[in-house]
């Protein structure tokens, strides 16, 4: 089917308007981040003439970003790895029917997406854990990591679907040769799941890295802040000093944008796979 | 048949499965059920305090107590938020997906850009738009002034702040819905369009009679995600206005009353249950409506 010329032009026009709406804010932030505060106040929108590299240094030091970065890396790294392992623990036996009531367990895990808001009792639970155990629960790194480790979300569903496409005969052949269950899971099944693991890692990592509400609720001490909460605090500190805040935005988002350009294809595929399964 | 040994070894998979099961029950399923139970009690956020059942008192308080006017406003605002976000976000996303799907030059670049806000996250997005919408030095106000001779307070306006929050929410998640539609569009067999073309269908007819019925499943997914998402997110509100300037929604109220409010936990629990029931009603309606449109081919 051929497209007429006018629809092509109209299509490009719509895309162009949207691109402006998506790119201009980021360019504006980028531009402002190099201005001195007085230059910004005099002319907020003009292209920067007198580049202030020191803005970045000041923002980095005064925003305490190195600490927040390390926390974010810790939370994202550990909780993502745990989520993947734990999801595999659930997905493999459920997909194969190696445990009783597999169908029921699958539905029970799926239910996690539709439960009533658990926030109130979750908060009480985190407080109680902190009080009874101390090392886990409210305002502890471990407590937050455990809260973010979930074996019942989209990753579980993606894994279950993928494992079903791996031949059962492989299980039987391995069992015949005397391969144990955990060895089979980690040395044979996991390498076969590389594509779906890649998308699972990316989806989980984006979710945890960008979690805003979780830290606000459960990580009130500055020593535990991840980068999202750090940015919020930084804003509280700098009010309307937009060049400083623009540096904060750039510091937080530049690594994400660089990473995104490299793994963009996986993210898109992963988002699709995840969404269609859910 | 279980191929990995007999006897006790038969229970190894179950042992592994216990890990996600226990985590799920402790951190999500359990608290979710406890919240429902709490909603019928006078529980307080004081360690070791006694709790007693008070029937539907908390539900009554949600709608008819001294300050329930505000709470009812939040509920209405939440519904408004959900309806607008669901319609506009999905409408726009479908339009963009259809446009990109006709093999424009640079289609990969466009979809990457539209998905970027999800990658950047709500903390960054909220700050970027607070900057764009700064009443004193923000470029949007400059534009308003140049075009209409008018200035706005944006996130500091009692009447407009919520509208701008809706805008940012749609700006942030439009790309996600678009991706889901694109996946649907790419699964439509091309020969159907060719058959339609030979029969002389117009563009609109082929969209209405071929494309739309065939992408109905991705429509269902998008509707569910938007409804559940819009009813339960409040991070964008927390990050922009922090509930001031008439921008509180139900989810925000639950958070506020649990973490920064009184010691009463029965009321936010009841509010959570009301929130859940509203979601349930809309999800059931949406699924029923969409199922009707799905076709087999």
From TrEMBL, chain A:
It comes from the Bacteria. Residues 69-263 form the ABC transmembrane type-1 domain. It is found in: Cell membrane. The keyword Magnesium does not apply. The keyword Oxidoreductase does not apply. GO terms for cellular component: plasma membrane. PROSITE patterns: ABC_TM1. Belongs to the binding-protein-dependent transport system permease family. This is Carbohydrate ABC transporter permease. It comes from Paenibacillus agri. The lineage of its organism: Bacteria, Bacillati, Bacillota, Bacilli, Bacillales.
UniProtKB/TrEMBL annotation, chain B:
Coiled coil: none annotated. It is a multi-pass membrane protein. The chain crosses the membrane at residues 12-30, 79-100, 112-133, 153-173, 212-238, 265-287. One of its GO terms (biological process) is transmembrane transport. Keywords: Cell membrane, Membrane, Transmembrane, Transmembrane helix, Transport. Residues 75-286 form the ABC transmembrane type-1 domain. InterPro entries: ABC_transporter_permease, MetI-like, MetI-like_sf. Signal peptide: none annotated. GO terms for cellular component: plasma membrane. It is found in: Cell membrane. Belongs to the binding-protein-dependent transport system permease family. This is Sugar ABC transporter permease. It comes from Paenibacillus agri.
């Amino acid at each position: 089917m051929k497209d007429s010329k006018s629809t092509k032009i109209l299509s490009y026009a719509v895309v162009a308007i949207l691109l402006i709406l998506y790119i201009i804010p980021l360019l504006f932030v980028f531009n402002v981040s190099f201005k001195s505060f007085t230059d910004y106040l005099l002319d907020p929108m003009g292209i920067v003439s007198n580049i202030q590299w020191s803005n970045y240094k000041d923002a980095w030091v005064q925003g305490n970003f190195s600490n927040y970065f390390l926390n974010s890396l810790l939370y994202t790294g550990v909780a993502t790895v745990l989520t993947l392992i734990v999801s595999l623990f659930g997905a493999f036996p459920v997909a194969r029917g190696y445990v009783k009531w597999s169908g029921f367990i699958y539905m029970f895990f799926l239910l996690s997406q539709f439960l009533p808001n658990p926030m109130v009792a979750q908060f009480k639970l985190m407080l109680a854990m902190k009080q009874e155990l101390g090392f886990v629960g409210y305002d502890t790194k471990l407590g937050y990591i455990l809260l973010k480790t979930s074996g019942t979300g989209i990753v579980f569903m993606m894994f279950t679907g993928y494992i079903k496409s791996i031949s059962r005969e492989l299980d039987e052949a391995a069992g015949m040769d005397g391969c144990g269950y955990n060895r089979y899971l980690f040395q044979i099944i996991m390498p076969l799941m590389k594509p779906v693991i890649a998308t699972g890692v990316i989806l989980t990592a984006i979710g945890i890295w960008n979690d805003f509400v979780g830290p606000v609720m459960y990580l009130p001490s500055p020593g535990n802040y991840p980068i999202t909460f750090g940015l919020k605090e930084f804003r509280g500190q700098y009010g309307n000093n937009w060049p400083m805040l623009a540096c904060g935005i750039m510091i937080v988002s530049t690594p994400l944008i660089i990473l995104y350009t490299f793994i963009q294809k996986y993210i898109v595929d992963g988002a699709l796979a995840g969404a269609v399964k859910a | 048949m279980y191929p990995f040994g007999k006897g006790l070894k038969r229970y190894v998979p179950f042992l592994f499965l216990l890990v996600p099961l226990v985590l799920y029950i402790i951190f999500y399923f359990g608290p979710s059920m406890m919240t429902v139970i709490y909603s019928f009690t006078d529980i307080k956020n004081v360690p070791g305090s006694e709790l007693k059942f008070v029937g539907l008192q908390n539900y009554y308080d949600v709608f008819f107590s001294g300050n329930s006017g505000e709470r009812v406003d939040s509920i209405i605002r939440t519904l408004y938020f959900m309806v607008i976000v669901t319609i506009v976000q999905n409408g726009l996303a479908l339009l963009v997906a259809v446009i990109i799907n006709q093999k424009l030059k640079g289609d990969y670049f466009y979809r990457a850009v539209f998905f970027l806000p999800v990658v950047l996250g709500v903390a960054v997005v909220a700050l970027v738009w607070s900057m764009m919408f700064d009443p004193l030095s923000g470029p949007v106000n400059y534009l308003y002034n140049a075009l209409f001779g008018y200035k706005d307070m944006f996130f500091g306006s009692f009447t407009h702040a919520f509208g701008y929050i809706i805008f940012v929410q749609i700006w942030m998640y439009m790309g996600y819905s678009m991706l889901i539609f694109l996946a649907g569009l790419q699964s439509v067999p091309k020969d159907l369009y060719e058959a339609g073309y030979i029969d002389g269908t117009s563009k609109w007819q082929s969209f209405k009679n071929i494309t739309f019925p065939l992408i109905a499943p991705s429509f269902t997914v998008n509707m569910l995600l938007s409804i559940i998402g819009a009813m339960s997110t409040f991070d964008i509100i927390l990050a922009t206005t922090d509930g001031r300037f008439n921008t509180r929604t139900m989810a925000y109220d639950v958070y506020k009353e649990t973490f920064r409010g009184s010691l009463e936990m029965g009321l936010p629990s009841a509010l959570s249950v009301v929130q859940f029931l509203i979601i349930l009603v809309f999800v059931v309606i949406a699924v029923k409506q969409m199922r009707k449109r799905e076709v087999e081919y």
